[in-house]
Design a protein that fits this description.
It is a single chain. The chain is of the alpha/beta class. It contains 37 helices and 43 strands. A hairpin with a 3-residue loop joins strand 29 and strand 30.
């Protein structure tokens, strides 16, 4: 029965996208909002992440985009007075905050009940010692281990267990701070980091179970203690690789029924003892040699695995969990097969695989190695009838320019001993290396011993290699009918076959279609809903689905796996497009393969195809569904990469034409267009070799910005200061051809960068507000903090920006969304680039300005005119400050300095009527507590000395005025400045009081000592462009991350920070909901 003692429920979101906690929690939180509102409850939602649809005002009754910490949550609870808190749908962040609110007595003070979980029971799950004791009581085996609160204690435990050992900090996520260590030196490093990161300053040191099978059970329980096992997940990578990085299969493919039943029985006993209502993920390890089973951990909340389990089985775990938390029981919810849900059992004659996507290439100097700490930034899920077919579907869904497993990088040219050596450690490339090792005749038994991957999976891969080798016997022509049919059934993509055989993809497609080898679609029924399905394709069974004959039908192509440079902002746009189309009476078809997102939720569109977004798959769905058109401009680079081929194959593309998108992408064509329109761009040139590059650089003058053509997220972009750096860059550049040259631009020094998101119908343009970047030109727009509306751009420049945007939109015939990037140098506005598609700032602009950009753009694509939409210029009385969030903690060897290549994984938003305070809140939301008054900042580290700041600046000449302003402002606020010698001398001449602190090799105490001893509360350290002089500075920046001292690497951000500190020192400000901010906006 639905609970009637509660009316208003608070849901805590998971904050910005970080490695280990991605948009699967936006998916679960969004589902919870839907479920609880359906039951008639009012929802108050808190989340700091502007990029997700979860923080859209349409999702909850009241939405707060505020920093996720104790102080802000108490302010919200005090203001909104919710009756209940649902904490287990916001990832580890939501769970930890609920525990903190409980411990601080805030829930009791305001009479807030916790639903869905028992917080004491959560401690039984999260606190390593209590968990161990609970398991002992249930008679369930755990790895031998002990708890420590100090590094010395860790050493004693490791000596008694014997190396290697695993370090697991309590209350962290994505394996943060933990790791497998082989000796005492490694133990000291990892244990000290782990203790630092743990909320309870506690680590578990346990025996290594490296190489055991890792198996997961997803359980749902209700208040009547009825339990069902939703899904069994087999990690194909053994224990030792974090489950978020592991290649996974559902259902179990190699595990016998007896072991499955044992795991289910143990999982039920554990979930009952912890008392969770809703979903719980239970992870086991099984030693195949002696049959021993141990429990690794439980997640008493919806997790990354629950998103995967939901999409794999059609059982919406978060939705059902929210209903159960509200008092319903499983026997009150319908089940398509057996009446009601308590009778649920996993079923389905298909295989589901998950394959992760990493971003090692974004971080110079980082080692590509997988371990017990999660490193993946995204994942794909594929569904098929056989392991082989599903595996190859997952690979082509990854979108890393590989359409099959063979011939990746230079692995095919390596000898077998070299390949075997590369397989000693798990890396992001291990399956591609395995494939080439099998081609070279590697023994599967040896490979199993080396990688702990089971023989079954290696044999399946070997069969794929053997089939591929048979086809390669006749290069330059199509394989025999029999081989082609087999290859398609085994999942070989048209594109991969064309590539390895040296034939045209269209010819492969034509031939197999003649042979009747086409995709058939099969349904996955949704549990808890009547008559609801989504679809997957297979070449191993005839079509079993029916397409409607609706005339008003539109297909939307999603963005594929999350990655740096292409995140949930694009998913947000796709979901909004589906909502807008539904409002206009259209049937919507979504195509995507990302299990973490809202777009692959069964009810985001009328019909979901859970498929890779590739030409082969999209064309066949198009032929089946016959939609009136396809939207490609919302899914980021993914659909744009195939848009030209789709158009050539007769697909009707809605909105901006492919020709226009190509002009904007092609620097040469775009420059010609700008010249014609009389719009200035920085001087530039193109080069295909070092000779050309040197002569272009000489004519433009250093520094220059260099990049490859056609990229998203600033991939491969760098600022080059001299010929030596240029030679190094060109030598490393790959894939440079006459039609894909290197692009060189004059680097605009000390220029203010800004961008505008616009709506256009090809004639007129509407810009809700211009965004001003905090960092100067040279930092990627995705990594720069930004303010909207702008603070320091004058009316004349804003008018120029609007005029240029209108001219360009007209010239490109933009229909829908467009993002323009500009830089203002010495009073002149330059165009940097035009993107006639959705950009990552669409959700940000939509929320700050209360203009639903993606929905409005969809209506324009359907043929409406801007004047029909009745949009007016607005007066926005508040500011939004966006700040990027970086994964540098996961990559301690990387220098955390910002540049033209994007490296952030997510973002947060600070809102306030005062722009400086909005910036301060954005830093607070990103976890950087600026030292306003640390004593009053909940969550800030009380051991940090509050009134000292360390400053070391490289660009004292070019930005002297700014540097002096920063110094004077800190002194005026009562801060003591510690400065390195050169900076100190500069400050003394300018009359700014400071104390000299030694650089690294110049005596003690030095810069590192004051960071380690926490004698400073902020580090401002701006790097020089030249790599040789960066090493000293890099140590300072890395130490700041390790010891969690806030650090800033640009003068512009330092200036914004000091203004924010000043604004915050007079009080931390109240909280306002997004709906309240929107009500205050007026028409100009």
């Amino acid at each position: 029965m639905k609970r009637d003692d509660i009316h208003k429920v608070l849901i805590i979101g998971s904050g910005p996208i970080v490695i280990g906690q991605a948009c699967e929690f936006d998916y679960s939180g969004t589902q919870a909002c839907k479920a609880l509102r359906e039951q008639g409850y009012k929802i108050v939602l808190v989340n700091s992440n502007p990029a997700t649809i979860m923080t859209d005002p349409v999702m909850a009754d009241v939405t707060y985009i505020e920093p996720l910490n104790l102080g802000r949550l108490e302010q919200i609870i005090d203001k909104e007075r919710p009756d209940a808190l649902l904490p287990n749908l916001g990832g580890q962040t939501g769970l930890n905050l609920a525990c903190e609110l409980n411990k601080a007595g805030i829930l009791e003070k305001y009479g807030v009940k916790v639903i869905g979980v028992n917080l004491d029971a959560i401690e039984r799950g999260e606190d390593r010692q209590i968990f161990k004791d609970t398991m002992l009581g249930l008679g369930i085996d755990t790895p031998r281990s002990d708890i420590t609160y100090s590094v010395e204690g860790a050493e004693k435990i490791a000596d008694s267990l014997g190396y290697p050992v695993v370090v697991r900090p309590a209350y962290t996520m994505g394996g943060a701070g933990g790791g497998l260590v082989y000796n005492v030196e490694e133990l000291r490093t990892v244990a000290s980091r782990g203790l630092e990161l743990s909320m309870t300053h506690q680590c578990l040191i346990e025996e290594s179970i490296l190489g055991w099978e890792e198996l997961e059970v997803e359980v749902v329980r209700d208040s009547k203690n009825q339990m069902i096992a939703i899904c069994f997940i087999e990690n194909i990578d053994a224990v030792g690789v974090h489950t978020g990085d592991s290649f996974c299969a559902a259902p179990f493919l190699t595990i016998d029924k007896k072991l499955e039943d044992t795991l289910k029985d143990q999982a039920f006993r554990i979930v009952e003892s912890i008392g969770v209502i809703g979903g719980t993920n239970v992870q086991f390890a099984h030693n195949p040699k002696d049959g021993r089973v141990v429990i690794i951990e439980i997640n008493p909340r919806t997790s990354r695995s629950s998103a995967l389990a939901s999409k794999a089985t059609g059982f919406p775990i978060a939705l059902i969990s929210a209903k159960l938390a509200a008092g319903l029981t499983l026997d009150e919810i319908p089940y398509w097969r057996d009446g009601t849900l308590e009778k649920y059992t996993p079923s389905g004659d298909y295989v589901v695989l998950k394959f992760a996507r990493w971003a090692f290439e974004k971080f110079r100097g980082v080692e590509d190695r997988l371990g017990t700490q999660m490193k993946a930034v995204g994942e794909v899920m594929s569904i098929g009838k056989t392991f082989k077919e599903t595996f190859q579907k997952a690979i082509r869904g990854l979108e890393n320019s590989r359409h099959g497993l063979g011939f990746a990088k230079d692995f095919n040219r390596k000898s077998l001993p070299e390949l075997m050596d590369m397989l000693r450690h798990a890396t992001s490339e291990r399956y591609f290396i395995l494939y080439e090792a099998l081609r070279k005749g590697a023994d599967t038994a040896k490979l199993e011993e080396l990688t702990y991957i089971k023989a079954y999976f290696l044999e399946q891969m070997k069969e794929l290699v053997e089939l591929e080798e048979r086809m390669l016997e006749t290069p330059g022509k199509l394989p025999s009918d029999e081989l082609l049919i087999r290859a398609k059934k085994d999942g070989f993509s048209d594109k991969y076959l064309a590539k390895i055989l040296g034939v045209r993809e269209a010819d492969v497609r034509k031939k197999r279609t003649e042979l009747g080898v086409v995709e058939g679609w099969h349904a996955v029924p949704v549990s808890g809903k009547d008559n609801t399905f989504y679809y997957y394709s297979t070449y191993n069974a005839p079509d079993a689905s029916v397409a409607s004959d609706a005339k008003k039908k539109i297909m939307i192509l999603g963005g594929g796996p999350n990655r740096i440079g292409q995140g949930i902002e694009f998913d947000y746009c796709c979901v909004h497009a589906a909502l807008a189309l539904r409002e206009q009476g259209y049937e919507t078809i979504m195509v995507n393969c990302n299990p973490e997102t809202v777009s692959t939720d069964y009810d985001s569109s009328d019909k979901l195809y859970f498929e890779p977004v590739t030409l082969e798959d999209v064309l066949q769905i198009y032929a089946k569904e016959k939609p009136a058109g396809v939207i490609v401009q919302f899914g980021g680079q993914t659909p744009l990469n195939i848009a030209r081929d789709l158009s050539d194959a007769g697909v009707k593309i809605l909105g901006t034409s492919i020709d226009s998108i190509d002009i904007a992408e092609d620097r040469d064509l775009f420059r010609k267009m700008m010249d014609k329109l009389g719009i200035p761009m920085p001087e530039s040139g193109m080069a295909i070799d070092i000779g050309e590059a040197i002569s272009v650089a000489a004519s433009i003058g250093y520094p220059i910005m260099i990049r490859p053509s056609f990229v998203l997220g600033g991939r491969g972009m760098e600022v080059i200061y001299d010929e030596a750096m240029l030679r190094e860059y060109v030598a490393k550049a790959v894939g440079v051809t006459p039609d894909r040259p290197l692009l060189l631009d004059r680097f605009l020094r000390n220029a203010l960068e800004c961008e505008a998101d616009a709506l256009s119908d090809g004639k007129s343009v509407y810009i809700p507000a211009v965004m001003e970047h905090v960092e100067l030109a040279g930092v990627h727009s995705g990594d720069s903090a930004c303010l909207i509306p702008p603070v320091s751009i004058d009316a004349e420049h804003l008018a120029t920006i609007k005029a240029y945007t209108t001219k360009i939109a007209e010239a490109l015939h933009v229909c829908g969304l467009m993002n323009m990037q500009y830089a203002i140098e010495d009073g002149k506005v330059y165009v940097l680039e035009a993107n006639p598609r959705a950009s990552r700032t669409v959700p940000l602009v939509s929320k700050v300005c209360n203009t639903q950009m993606a929905r409005l753009a969809t209506r324009l694509m359907l043929g409406e005119k801007l004047e029909d939409l009745k949009l007016r210029d607005k007066v926005i009385p508040h500011y939004g400050a966006k700040e990027a969030v970086f994964p540098f903690e996961k990559f301690p060897e990387v220098d955390p300095v910002l540049g033209p290549e994007m490296r952030s994984t997510g973002e947060v938003l600070g809102l306030s009527e005062n722009y400086a305070f909005a910036f301060y809140k954005s830093q607070e939301a990103a976890g950087t507590f600026l030292p306003a008054d640390l004593a009053s900042v909940p969550g800030a580290d009380s051991s940090v000395s509050p009134r000292k700041v360390l400053i070391s600046i490289s660009e004292k000449d070019s930005l002297a005025a700014q540097a002096v302003e920063v110094g004077k402002a800190f002194v005026a606020l009562g801060f003591k400045i510690l400065a390195t010698e050169g900076t100190a001398e500069f400050y003394r001449k300018a009359g700014v009081e400071c104390e000299v602190i030694a650089k690294l090799n110049e005596g003690r105490p030095n810069v590192l000592d004051v960071i380690l001893n926490r004698q400073v509360s902020l580090v401002i350290n701006t790097p020089t462009g030249r790599r040789d002089s960066r090493a000293d500075d890099a140590v300072i920046r890395k130490a700041s991350i390790k010891y969690r001292v806030p650090y800033i690497t640009t003068l512009a951000a330092a200036l914004a920070a000091v203004k924010g500190i000043k604004a915050a020192s007079s009080g931390r400000g109240g909280v306002k909901s997004l709906q309240e901010y929107h009500r205050a906006i007026t028409e100009a």
